[in-house]
Amino acid sequence: MSASKSFLSDPRYGYDVVVAVTQDSINATMKQFLNKLEEPVVTVCIVADENARPALMDFARLLEETGGVDPFAIPAGADPQTTPEMERLQHARFMAGFRARLGLPPGVPPYKLPHLVELGSDTAAVTFNMLCSEFDIVQFIPAGGYSPATWLHLTQPAGTPWIIRSKVDLRLSEVDDNAYHTLPEDVKGRIKNLDADAFSVQQLLFDLTNARLAAGRPEIEGVTPGSDLELILDRYFLGVYFDQLQKGGQPVLGTAITHRADAQLPSSFALTDLNFHVNPVAGDDGRPLPQPTLEQQGLATLNYLCAINHRALPPAVAFSWNWVDPQEKSDFHGVAVTNKTAFVDRLRLALDDHARHNCVQPSVRVTLENFYTTVKYRLEVSSYQEPVVVAPTTGSVVLQYDYQSERAYDEAGVSAIGGSLEMKSSYHMDATLAGDTITITQHLLVYLSANNGAISGDGNVVDRTMTDTYTLGITDQGELTTTTVSQSTDNSQNPDTGWLDFLGGFLHDVLDRLDESVRNFVSPSFHPVPMNAVQDYVFPGGKTFAFKAVGFSDNQDLVAHITYADPV
User: Which of 138, 396, 470, 501 is most buried by its number of CB atoms within 10 A?
Assistant: First the structure.
């Protein structure tokens, strides 16, 4: 799969989380959303100000000033000379108005409608084709010269939608020379939504319809060039209404962000920054294809670049791999990816304590007692020593823990004539991420050497290796699950059947103390803390996506394939 090449820990990237969705999936899901959208009708009226220039007037105020005259109730072709309502509209200096509702236009199957979103190759110029389920425009044309006053009332015909085509700048970085950084803080917050709805098509639609992000004035398509309709739309919709909204940074027709009522699992990572980036389909050399096919254009992705824990969000740069292959497009809409570094940091928080528990420092004491006739051996073991921890930057082994205790030694009598005891321990643990598995391998070694002045012996009284393999799964809501297979090997030397019997029973007490200190050397799956880091992990986007296959990329990023859930 293309996502197998994901390498977010590469210094060129560094994003904590990336969510990438294809152009085709955005369009299909947004059309599905718009098809059942119940947005309010937006009514805008334009009147002449004291200098005879067009100005916006609230519809309710127009009704008040005209005694309740609704210009949209006046039919096309009405004669201003014989229609009483016209006189009241003229008194209010009415010029034109339009009434529109965001949604899919009637009379055209969704699959025959144009793409709503065309990603192209430039995040600063994403094409958005806004459609309306209703669109009416009216204009009062006063008498002039030899022409009598006329009334126009034009309605979007079924089967032939009017399309408001915009170029939208989706760069949400404060350092870019873009429109976003000039917006008021409250508007920025609504556009750069870091809540659970951050990846929803509702939020994306809100951003795309935001007039302030438009890179220049839109164009009207589906209208005959030079017609009265084109002139009215250009002057009043684009020239008055759109320009007014562009100053304040509001959606052109407004779209509400609704929240799903059903309970959703909170993500393990709270987003603290976000930016968009468009990734066109790349060739084998990692560069965008110069002439992509329609299918390849549909596989271009809109990437949500995310930071967590208030870390700085790196600049947006193109990825050298594709997120979705052609053979995957019918099964997946995109991917949600967690940077190896971010995931390993979470894993380490859990494994550190487990490792320290198994890092033991022995201390020994050998004395002659009973008038120097008996050798007494004593042992104390201190757990929770600090291992050396290494996080390799390459390879499937992502964490290595190493510990070597100091040599513990004591003797009784001159030149150990009464006896001696030596002990030392070592601990090693590897965490490996590969395919759909996490493998934890541990090795604990305890060496003991003892003599009673006449007989001596030594050996590895603890030599245990444990390997736990966690195979990952994922729920629809993005929560990781695991199934575990554990294997253990015990190569410990048992002194009870060897040299220890000849050294006296006191050493059995030492071995009992040692066994007590290491008996909790167990796999993380049986320990109450460590693998919760995996089993409790929840991907961001659970309110927007259904999650499917999960595994690690070749560079150990955690990758989950996603599809848009039913938008509501």
Answer: 138
pLDDT in the model for residue 263: 47
Under 8 Å between Cβ of 137 and 162: no
Q: Angle, nearest 10°, between helix axes 84-91 and 59-66?
A: 120
Closest CA to 117 of 157, 170, 162, 42: 170
Buried b (16+ CB within 10 A) or exposed e, 172-197: bbeebebbbeebeeebeebbbbeebb
CA dist., res. 505 & res. 515, Å (int): 16
pLDDT recorded at residue 520: 56
Categorise residue 216: left if φ over 0, alpha if ψ from -120 to 50, beta otherwise: left
Q: Give the DSSP H/E element, type plus range, for residue 427.
A: strand 419-434
Return all residues near 311 (Cβ < 8 A) that are at least 6 apart.
16, 272, 273
Q: CB neighbours of 366 closer than 8 A, spacing ≥ 6?
A: 375, 376, 377, 378, 410, 411, 412, 418, 419, 420, 421
Angle separating helix axes 23-35 and 201-208, nearest 10 degrees? 90
> Residue 567: phi, psi to the nearest 5?
-70, 140
Of 424, 423, 420, nearest in space to 450 by CA: 420
pLDDT tens for residues 353-367? 889 988 989 998 888
392: how many CB neighbours lie within 10 A of its CB? 13
pLDDT in tens, 455-504: 778 888 888 898 989 899 988 888 888 888 888 898 988 765 555 555 55
The DSSP H or E segment spanning 219 is strand 219-221
Candidates 197, 193, 186; CA nearest to 276 is: 193
pLDDT on residue 102: 87
Distance CA 247, CA 213 (A): 10
Residue for token digits 């824990």? 309
Name the residue with tokens 């025959």: 112
147 band by pLDDT with thresholds 50, 70 and 90: confident
Determine the Cα–Cα distance for residues 21 and 199; give it in Å rounded to an integer.
9
Q: Which residues pair with 405 in a beta bridge?
A: none
d(CA 52, CA 42): 24
